[in-house]
Amino acid sequence: MTPSPTSPSALFEFLRTSYPSAVSSSACETDIPALSHQIFPSTPYTDNEKIETSQWLTTSLRLATPDEDEAKHAERLGSLNIHLSTRTTLLGSKPSVADVALYYRLAPAVKSWSVEERTGEHGYHNIVRFIDFVQNAPLFGLSIKDEDKVDIDLNDVKFVHKPLDAKEEKERKKKEKAAAAAAGGQSVLPVGKGKGEDNGKSSKKEQARDAAAKAEDKVKGAVTGESTQQPKKEKKEKQPKPQKQPLKEIPLSPCLIDLRVGYILKAENHPNADSLYVSTIACGDASGTDNTSEYEGQVVRTVCSGLNGLVPLEEMQGRKIIAVCNLKPVTMRGIKSAAMVLAASPRLKEGEEDSHKGPVELVTPPADAKAGEKVIFEGWAGEPEGVLNPKKKVWEMLQPGFTTTTGLEVGFDMDAVPQLQGEEGGKKPIGKLVTASGGTCTVKSLGNAVVR
Asked: Does the N-terminal or the C-terminal CB of the chain have fewer CB atoms within 10 Å?
């Protein structure tokens, strides 16, 4: 293998050697993200998978960078190890060029790992398994000499993580359910029986005995003239059901909109729409939050924005923005967008139509603001909704109040929202958009502009 794993040209030559029929002579390093379909022609890829492949190519390069901070490097490896714990390949089960790139760039490091680093209690078991799979699987068919492969002894395992036994887990849940029912005073049905069911033949015998006893009682009653019927139980009067309390109406306020500082880790052109960018943005979400994923050890949202042609792509890279985080996710030309980036544009004059030609400027938080930091309008503190109900049109009603001042500060103008008339209550005419730490959000040059 070539001893320069961080070099795009070296990776390209490795791909060309392994897949000469798939990598044409006219191709170059910049074509690497698009090579998955040529190398694995029978594998279909969704638009999200194409973007994820591109992101993993970037991550593989960073993992191979020798001068990276040691703690950050360990964090990236840990994140990758967790990602691979439930996946055969980076995309789950589908092979891609990102798998080959990750193998090529990470294999030299894995070669030098100790047994403890490979399979110890805190080792990278799943990365080692992945490396072994890619270098040996016919699915990938890499052109590597045996002496160049990472020597992995499958029997040399220092620590074995106990796998979850599905049968034991099922039994455990049954016992917990039975214990909970018993604690609540409920009768617990035997396993394998439903309500009102008895067990096989014994049930039929008991039913026959009951029928015979009833017949005998009827005969006795006919001979003696006495009634053998049991007195009917008096019906209990049904208690009226308590009426449900009506849901408390939440007053309209810009605090209902979940505004946060976001950090764009990466932005690129949308593969199916010339006017859109696709950005990977850290918004401070907890791991496992709906509509998030992990990228470079951070929880991120994928966001589509109609800023292509209005904001240069280089201005969308590695920068802080303000994100609207509780709009209902929408799919834009095949890619789900889970937030919105706030930007300012000139206010239209009366009768003027929006040509969507700009200029457009991104709303910028203070330099010391952290990703995920809450942002509010002064005088409008409160808790945001979880996800805004599209039917209630909360964003559509409040957005006209989003503005910039002549001092280039972003604020909320209550007078621009008819539904808020008469709600003054000591509020400022325009409440500035500020972070929790007190800094004000601004734009570069567009005063008295619309923000959306």
From this structure: C
